Amino acid sequence: MGVAERKERHKEELKKEILMAAKELFMEKGYEATSIRNIAEKIEYSPATVYLYYKDKDEIMHALHQEGFKMLVAYFGTLNTIPEPFGRLIAMGRAYIQFAMENPEMYELIFVMKDPIDHVASCADDSWDEGDRAYDVLFQTVVECQKSGDFQGFEPHGLSFTIWSTMHGLCSLRISGHLGHVAEASKVKPDVDSLMTYTFETFTGVLEKIR
Amino acid sequence: MGVAERKERHKEELKKEILMAAKELFMEKGYEATSIRNIAEKIEYSPATVYLYYKDKDEIMHALHQEGFKMLVAYFGTLNTIPEPFGRLIAMGRAYIQFAMENPEMYELIFVMKDPIDHVASCADDSWDEGDRAYDVLFQTVVECQKSGDFQGFEPHGLSFTIWSTMHGLCSLRISGHLGHVAEASKVKPDVDSLMTYTFETFTGVLEKIR
DNA sequence: AAACTTACTAAACAGTGTTTAGTAATTGTA
DNA sequence: TACAATTACTAAACACTGTTTAGTAAGTTT
């Protein structure tokens, strides 16, 4: 009979509904505002019901984690159309920044917060696959750059981690507000976003020079 | 009469005692464990008393903020003995990493967390002076490098922010555990710390190349 | 019709930051 | 010296958090 299947389907829908409510709250108001009670209220169920679908808040955050990586991948979507690897590397950086700026809470969730990755470490199943894959995209691009003659004399992993560090540092300093504060004090650029673009361009200049 | 002075002195001592209790809890167990109640218990006063000396938790965190920068400055202490600016820049990077690794919670407080810097933005008095000064140390070093012939064709602020981004990115990815995770997956180096040192060395290699 | 399972929730527990009202003890004044 | 005022402190509460437990209706199976 299809009754069990229908029920199963409904359960999956509710689980998805919980996740989407969490995603909306999280992306709009951040981690603090994403309480189990707030999620429950949004889907019009009791807080305890949420626990029937997710073990704890960490598990919800882990699920959101995967959502976040899907979004990042979407930002990387059009990169394949760029055949020249160095240009693709720069475009990747630009896309990374755009993702971080348009989805700061998501960026923090997947690249800054410790709790979700701790959860990931405890359940050894799917682990941090998405993150590993995202790194691999960068690494492969660097390798391709070297194949076409760029970055000679550098080891690709070392360079990849350096590039990731720079991009992550820039984005996280921007999101946390630290870049903005120093920007205001040093008055290098009129606003934070200008400074950010400017710093990125300086970085691309560095990459051009070691090309 | 010296009675009022003695009392005033005692009040200042208690305020310091609260801060030191907070510092100890914070550096050992992190932000979560540093609750007002825990602080109060440590100094053997009631939680409400803490509020007679600090407006709220943010104000305590802001005070700890300043403590953190004092510690960072201590790590930078011996840098003046290095006359050659480029070598000093590299040593600065090494000191920055050492500070981050030996005091991860403090590093997060002053460079990662948003809340304290929000508090800093609201009270416009002393603002984020320590951070600005720390940036200025980096900037001046870059300027000195250029004076002695390095980094020609680069604008010093752009380069300073790029360097800070790289260093911060590396340290924060290490502390948050993200670097460790990708390290394990990519198996570039046997352990995270090796990867971190290795990435830093790659970065110094980049700086050497654009020197 | 009775037993069992499912889906859900009210209420509680222990914790958080923070505020309010009140209490002793000390100090200043009449 | 007696009374008022100030100081330093705290118990208890409020509103929130994540999470668990016990219980309740409804649907399913026997």
Could you say how many structural domains of chain A there are in total? 2
Distance between the termini of chain A: 65 Å
Q: What is the C-alpha radius of gyration of chain A, as a whole number of Å?
A: 20 Å
User: In terms of per-residue confidence, which ranges of chain A show pLDDT below 50 for 5 or more consecutive residues?
Assistant: none
Proportion of β residues of chain A? under 5%
- Quick check: average pLDDT of chain A? 93
How is the main sheet of chain A built? none
Largest interface: A-B, 51 and 51 residues
Helix content of chain A: over 70%
Name of the CATH architecture of the largest domain in chain A: Orthogonal Bundle
Structural class call of chain A reads: mainly alpha
Question: What's the shape of chain A?
Answer: globular
DSSP E strands of chain A, number:
0
State the oligomer.
Answer: homodimer
Element order of chain A: H for helix, E for strand: HHHHHHHHHHH
Provide a count of the helices of chain A: 11
The CATH superfamily of the largest domain in chain A bears the name Tetracycline Repressor, domain 2
- Using the coordinates above, name the CATH class of the largest domain in chain A: Mainly Alpha
CATH topology of the largest domain in chain A: Tetracycline Repressor, domain 2
Characterization of the model:
Two copies of one chain form a homodimer. The first copy, chain A, has helices spanning 3-29, 36-43, 47-53, 57-76, 85-102, 104-112, 115-122, 129-147, 156-176, 178-186, 192-209. Chain A folds into two domains: 1-54, Orthogonal Bundle (Arc Repressor Mutant, subunit A); 57-209, Tetracycline Repressor, domain 2 (Orthogonal Bundle), CATH 1.10.357.10. Chain A is globular. Chain A contains eleven helices and no strands. In chain A, helix 4 packs across helix 6 and helix 5 crosses helix 6 (104-112). Chain A has 211 residues and is mostly helical. Chains A and B meet through helix 7, helix 8, helix 9, helix 10 and helix 11 of A and helix 7, helix 8, helix 9, helix 10 and helix 11 of B. The first copy, chain A, binds a DNA duplex (30 and 30 nucleotides) through residues 3, 7, 11, 32, 35-37, 45-49, 51-52, 56-57.
